[in-house]
Amino acid sequence: RWPTMLSRKGHHDPSPRREADVEAHHPRHPPKSTARPPRRLLIIAAVACSLWYLCMQYMVQSHAPAAEPRASSDLDMYSEPPVQRRPVPAVASVPPAAQLLPKVAGSQPTPAVAAQPPSARPQAVQAGQAQAKQDDEAPRCKSDDQFTDCAADLVKACGRWRNLCQSTCTPGCDPAADNDNAAVVLESPHVERVEAARAPEAEPQTCLPFSRRLCPPLNLSLLDNKEQKAVHDSCGKYVKQERNLPSPPRFCGAREGRLNPCWSETAGNGSALSYCLPHFFILGEMKCGTTTVYELLLKHPRIVAPRTKEPRYLQQGRFAQTTLSRYAVNFRRAVETAAADTVTFDASPVYLRSKIARFWLARWLPEAKLIVLVRNPVQRSYSHWKMGYEWAHGKCSDGDMAQRLKEVAELLTFSSIIQRSLVVTYWDRCRQLTGGESAPSGFSLMALNDKRLPPAEQRHLHSPAATLNYSAFGRCLLTQDHDLILEYADELRGAWPVEPLKGAMSRAKHAVGSCSEMMMLPPAALQKSGSYAVELERWARIFPRSQIKVIVTDELTRGSQRIMNETFDFLQLPRMPIGNQSRFCVRGKAGVMDVLHASELNITIGHDTSEHAHLLAPQLKVGDCEPDSGHAHDEATGSDLHRIEPRVQERLRRFFEPHNRRLYRFLGRDLGW
Questions:
Q1: What 8-state DSSP symbol labels residue 147?
Q2: Angle between helix 377-395 and helix 501-515 axes, rounded to 10 deg
Q3: DSSP string covering 240-257
C-alpha cells in the first residue's frame, strides 16, 4: 500500500482511495507494480527492530532465575554460587550425602534437593552468561574469611552487588519462597565411596585432607612467645592451601557408613586411618545452659565427648590458624568406638554469631544437626556480667592490674556496666539515623564532640537536657530512654568524671577487658542477649528448620527429661534417662577451650612428663551451680533468678521487648519474657 500511504513529498493521506484517484492526484507517483519503500525508511526500520531485540534480551536477562553454579578458579572454597531455594517441585537429580551411604539404624535420609525445571534452563543459561560477565567486572575476594550475609538483607541481596565479592555471598532474593521451611541450598561436598588422591603437603591441594601435619601442634601452649610465632608462620601456608580448593568441594577420604560423619583416608605410611567430625553442634548462646546440655548429653551411651568442650575451630582468628587435621584430633574418641550409631559433637557457644561457622558448616557438613539455647535476656545479661566479674578478680587478684580495677570498682557493678551498655547501644542506633562518629569502644568515656554541643562559652547557660537538644543526635538519644540519658548527661557533655576518677578510668580501660576476658566490656552483654532471633534467622536461611533445635533454658530446668527426650529424638538416638540433676556449671577454665596460646587461658596442660604428655587434654571440671546471695527462686519458671535493681530491670525489659517479639515470631510462641 505504499502508493496509497506515501507521496513523493512524504505526505501521509489516511483516506482510502482507489488507484485511479491516486494516479490523478499524484501523476508523478510510480505505478503500483514498481513501488519500493525509500532506503531511508528501511534503515530506520532495521535500527528500530535491532533496538527492540536488544531491549527484549535485557528484559529476559534481568528477570531470569539464578544462574547454574559455575566452577570457581581463584576464589576460595567457601564461595557461594548462585542458588535456588528449597523446596522446588521436580524430580531429584543428585541425592544428598545421607542417601549415598549405607542406611544406619535409627537414621532418616535427608529429602533430596529437586532439580531445576527444564523450562527454566534456557533462561538460566542466559542468566549464567550475564552473571559470568558481571563476575569478571567484580573485585575478587582477598581473604577466605570475607563472607557477605546477603540473606540477612533482601534489599541488598537483590540489588547489583558490584562492590561485593559476589561468589562469597549467599543471596535470598525470592521473598515469595521465603516460608518457614525454605532454605538456601549451597553446593555440598561430593561424598564419594572412593578415596581421592591427596597431594603432597607442600603442593596445592585438590581436596580437603585429614592426614596432614597438625597446625598448630598440640603442645603449642608449652612454647614461649617466640616459638609460637615461628610455628604459626610455618603453618600459614598449610592453612592457606585448605582455604583455596577447586570446585566442587570434597574431602580426600572415603565416607564411612556411620551415623556420625567419618572418613577413611590413607596416611603417608600407606595405612588407612579413620577421621571423624561432629554429628551435631551446640551453637550457643553463652550463659544459656550450654554446659548443662553438654553434661546431660554425655549421659547417653552413644554420645562421645570431644577432647575439649569448646574446640572453637570456626571462630574468627582461630580459623585462620588451624588445619582440619588439628580440629579432627578433638574427635579421636569417636573413631575408637565400633558402634555404627555412636556420635560426637562440638559445643563451642561462639558459633551462633560466627559467619565462618555458618558458611563452613553449610558447605562441608550440610546435614549437621544444630542446637541453640535461649534464655531470658535480662537474666542472661546478669550471668554474662557475673562471669566476667569473677574472671577479672580471679585472674587479676594482685599486682598492678588488681590496683587499677580497685580504683574504678564503683563503675564495675552490674547496674553501672549494663546501663553504660545501653547508652553505647543507643549512641550507635542514633548514629545510624543522624550520622556522626561511632560510640566509644569498650570501657571508655562517653563524651560528645563539639559539633553536637552548644558553643563552649554558652554551655553554662544550658541545662543538661537543653545541651543534648542542641543537635539532632542528642534529641535522638533522649527519645531512646529520656531518664537514662539525663543520668549520663554530664559525661556526655564532658563535665564528668573529674580527677582522680578520670585518670583511673583511663588506666583501667585495658585491665577491665584483659582480666575479664572481654566479658565486662560494654555492650557485649546486651548484644548477645538481644540477638537470638537475628542469628537464628541467618542460620535458618542456610539450614532447613528440621535441622535446628531451639531449647529454652527455663523449660530445660523445669522438665529436663522431657527436653532431653526431644533432643535425643532430634539427634536420631534412642531415649535415655538422665537423672535428677538439671543444672551444671563449669569450675575453672581448664578443659573448656582448645588451647592455641598459653596466654588465652593462663593454664598448663597437666603434669604428665611422659612423651605423650602433650596429647592429654586438661580435664573439664563440672559441678553443681552454687547460687549467690542475690538469687531468688521463681515458682512460675522453677528457676533461680538473679536479683536486679527494679529500675535497671525495667530499662532492660523495655530494651529487649522488640527483640523478644522477633524471637517469638521465629518460634511461633510467646515465652513470656
A1: -
A2: 100
A3: HHHTSPPSSP-BSSEEPS
As beta bridge partners, residue 169 has: 148
Q: Which amino acid makes up residue 340?
A: A
Sign of the alpha-carbon dihedral angle for 46, 51, 52, 58: positive
* Distance of alpha carbon 495 from the chain centroid: 40
In the three-class reduction of DSSP (H, G, I as helix; E, B as strand; rest coil), residue 178 is classed as coil
Q: What is the pLDDT of residue 266?
A: 87
Whether 166 contacts 82, CB under 8 Å: no
Q: List C-alpha distances in Å: 138 to 132, 172, 397, 577.
A: 10, 20, 53, 56
Task: Please tell me the pTM assigned to this model.
Answer: 0.71
Instruction: Quote the strand ranges of 327-426, DSSP E.
Output: 343-346, 369-374
Query: Which residues, 6+ apart, have CB-to-CB distance to 242 below 8 Å?
Result: 77, 205, 208, 209, 323, 324
Specify the DSSP element, H or E, that contains 423: helix 414-434
Question: What is the rounded distance in angstroms from the CA atom of residue 421 to the CA atom of residue 194?
Answer: 54
521, 512 Cβ separation under 8 angstroms: yes
Distance CA 341, CA 303 (A): 9
Q: Give the DSSP H/E element, type plus range, for residue 283.
A: strand 280-284
Q: Are 560 and 578 in contact (CB under 8 A)?
A: yes
Residue type, 238: Y
Cβ-count burial 280-297 (b if 16+ within 10 Å, e if not): bbbbbbbbbbbbbbbbbb
Angle, CA 647 vertex, CA 644 and CA 651 arms, to 5°: 95
Coil vs helix vs strand at 355: helix
**CA distance to 294, 365, 551, 623, per residue, from 284 (Å):** 11, 18, 10, 20
DSSP 8: T
pLDDT of 588 reads 54
Q: How far apart are CA 655 and CA 530, in angstroms?
A: 9
**N-term to C-term CA, the chain:** 80
Query: What's the CA gap between 320 and 145, in Å, rounded?
Result: 8
Phi-psi region of 10 (alpha: psi -120 to 50; beta: other; left: phi over 0): left
Q: What nine digits make up the cell of 230?
A: 615461628
pLDDT at 589: 54
- H or E, element range at 238: helix 225-242
- Residue 445 dihedral angles phi and psi, to the nearest 5°: -70, 140
Q: Residue 593 corresponds to which cell in the numbers above?
A: 577451650
Determine the pLDDT at residue 86.
36
Query: How many Cβ atoms sit within 10 Å of the Cβ of residue 511?
Result: 20
- Number of Cβ within a 10 Å radius of residue 95: 14
State how far the Cα of 254 lies from the Cα of 270, in Å rounded to an integer. Answer: 15
- The radius of gyration computed from the CA coordinates of the chain, to the nearest angstrom, equals 32
What's the one-letter identity of residue 182? A
Which H, E and C letters describe 474-541, residue by residue? HHHHHHHCHHHHHHCHHHHCCCCCCCCHHHHHHHHHHHHHHHCCCCCCCCHHHHHHCCHHHHHHHHHC
- Grid cell in block for residue 94: 543428585
How many whole angstroms separate alpha carbon 377 and alpha carbon 423? 17
User: Is 398:498 a contact under the CB 8 Å cutoff?
Assistant: no
Q: Give me the residues of the chain with pLDDT under 50, please.
A: 1-34, 64-183, 185, 590-591, 597-618
